[in-house]
């Protein structure tokens, strides 16, 4: 139930390793915020500073307006679950989960009720009498998660809490974590490098790379209005395609070919200062429409190289017409039949075209459409 503010927060290890740089953002009360980013980007350092496990080198962290910089983990009333389980080896699973409640002096009957409730939610009832060391990694993580979630804290901090579970269980656990968050109504910060996890869980996503905040926003913001090229390519599977293009005028770009090129109309005007500039045209594999005959408007021809079936969809790798035969990925319906080597037309709707001048977005497509 805390609103958490990070205000110009830095983490510098040993006076020289800058792990977190000038981080400012707010986690709203009852929000589920996912901190997403590549390995080594500063996610765990941020979480550990929120937890009070790591000293804050500069800046302030506030819970409900109150500075907590100098408070230890216990004084902050937070729950933690990490990638490594940190379970008490000499206690049974039951006692591990019950521990935070016993410390608070809760009555036996209530402890038992709560342990059983969370164990049922996380499917742990069958291992309650076992020792954690006799369990596989994924199960130990579930115990660690149960022990964190049972506390009903001000703030729940979860750092890659399901990374050791197998794929099928992970999907289930995501739903359980989100359900528990919703029913408890607490504030949750969840660290992961897995974008599928972020997409499944988050109210908002904060993307951190090289210790710096790249963007914070809803999935819609991040998907449709990425703040930079890194964000555009980091979120999305398969990742956004980038095609070299030249700005013709404020309303169109050209993908050059020896015969002239393919022209693409834009949804919004681009600043005239970019006319003649080489840019990267970004288009998501899910947002390309395929045709066998040349359609009207924004289309480019390409030859199908690879077809990968993935359940209800198929991912096509297509060599675009042109000198560099740029490869693009297209997500198509799995029921459509395509053959390797056939020529298709790729239609790129003006509203889905992203343009980047280096790292900077200069056309974000559907900004005004939604
Ligand atoms: N105790 C430490 N002493 C020195 N450097 C550290 C320490 N902990 C982290 N770092 C460095 O700080 C940077 C950020 O690390 P951090 O673990 O916060 O990133 P991360 O995004 O959580 O990565 P991962 O997903 O791999 O855990 C890295 O360069 C890391 O090597």
UniProtKB/TrEMBL annotation:
Enzyme Commission number(s): 3.6.3.-
Organism listed in the record: Neomoorella stamsii
Enzyme class, spelled out: hydrolase
InterPro entries: AAA+_ATPase, ABC_transporter-like_ATP-bd, ABC_transpr_MalK/UgpC-like, Mo/tungstate-bd_C_term_dom, NA-bd_OB-fold, P-loop_NTPase, Transp-assoc_OB_typ2
Name of the gene: sugC
Protein's name in the database: Trehalose import ATP-binding protein SugC
Cellular-component GO terms for this entry: ATP-binding cassette (ABC) transporter complex, substrate-binding subunit-containing
PROSITE patterns: ABC_TRANSPORTER_2
One Pfam family here: ABC_tran
Molecular function terms, GO-annotated: ABC-type transporter activity; ATP binding; ATP hydrolysis activity
Domain ABC transporter: start-end pairs: 4-235
Highest taxon listed in the record's lineage: Bacteria
Keywords: ATP-binding, Cell membrane, Hydrolase, Membrane, Nucleotide-binding, Translocase, Transport
